[in-house]
Amino acid sequence: MKKYILGLVVFFSVLTFSANAFALKVAVVDLNKALQDCQAGIDAKSMLQKIIQAKKTVIDNKQQELNALAQKIQNPSTPKKEKQQLEVEYQTKARDLERYKADATDDVVSKEREYTQNIINGLVETVKNISQKEGIDLVFEVHQGLVYWNDALDITPQVIKEYNKIYEQSKK
């Protein structure tokens, strides 16, 4: 009987040890939320708005020039020879405006990608650091096919807080 009880104790001890040996600590993170809520993301959004506003001002000025040229062309008192020159100038400026709009759009998209990629890289590095400190084995991004998770597993606020500290130190 003692052997039987001892055998059961050993069996359950091994079973418990094995279960603990394979237990994983899992967390989730919402990188989109972290990107939007971290100070670097807020600053990047602000910088992009300034770039967009500056380009919009240039576009508006060029459009006003085109409108003024169009009025001169349509003015009946404008001589025919001058109208022809103005039409050529109008077409040139209209093409320049379209090129500028396309270049401005490309520039804004490029800057947005650059800012986003830099911030995401920093956030991922922060997730790695937090995971190592907290002993987390797996971190899932919530937008990559997860259907449900317990809010206690979400480390997004911690990632934002830690990344903001790193970002503020890098600004100094």
From TrEMBL:
One of its GO terms (molecular function) is unfolded protein binding. GO terms for biological process: protein stabilization. Residues 1-21 form the signal peptide. SMART domains: OmpH. One of its GO terms (cellular component) is cytosol. Residues 52-103 form a coiled coil. Pfam families: OmpH. Keywords: Coiled coil, Signal. PANTHER family: CHAPERONE PROTEIN SKP (PTHR35089). Belongs to the Skp family. This is Periplasmic chaperone for outer membrane proteins Skp. It comes from Desulfurella multipotens.
